[in-house]
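Here is the promised in-class demo. Please do not try to memorize the tokens; focus on the logic of going from shape to residues.
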């Protein structure tokens, strides 16, 4: 294919993607509304309900999620090493976990 044909193909595919994403947004809004209604009913019924053929609906209590900023911890480990506290630096590094993210297309929409 030539570059002009690829540009036309990309424009067409982007329009299709836009259409699908709009449909997904509508479905997400509908899902959110249904979940809000379900939450109200489940709350009235005591916070936990089993629906035969569907599953269990249960209200989850609010919780706090704790996380640490990676760059700050890496800087702390470096400072500990510089100060001669390698045991503590190594103890922190032993808890470091890495996970791979697959590469792929990144779409940044115009504002």
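The designed amino acids, position by position:
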């Amino acid at each position: 294919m030539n570059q002009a044909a690829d540009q036309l193909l990309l424009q067409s595919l982007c329009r299709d993607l836009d259409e699908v994403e709009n449909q997904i947004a509508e479905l997400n809004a509908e899902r959110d509304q249904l979940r809000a209604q379900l939450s109200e009913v489940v709350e009235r019924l005591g916070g936990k309900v089993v629906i035969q053929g569907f599953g269990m609906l249960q209200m989850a209590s609010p919780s706090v999620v704790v996380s640490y900023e990676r760059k700050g911890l890496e800087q702390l480990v470096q400072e500990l090493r510089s100060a001669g506290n390698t045991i503590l630096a190594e103890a922190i590094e032993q808890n470091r976990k890495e996970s791979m993210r697959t590469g792929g297309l990144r779409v940044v929409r115009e504002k």
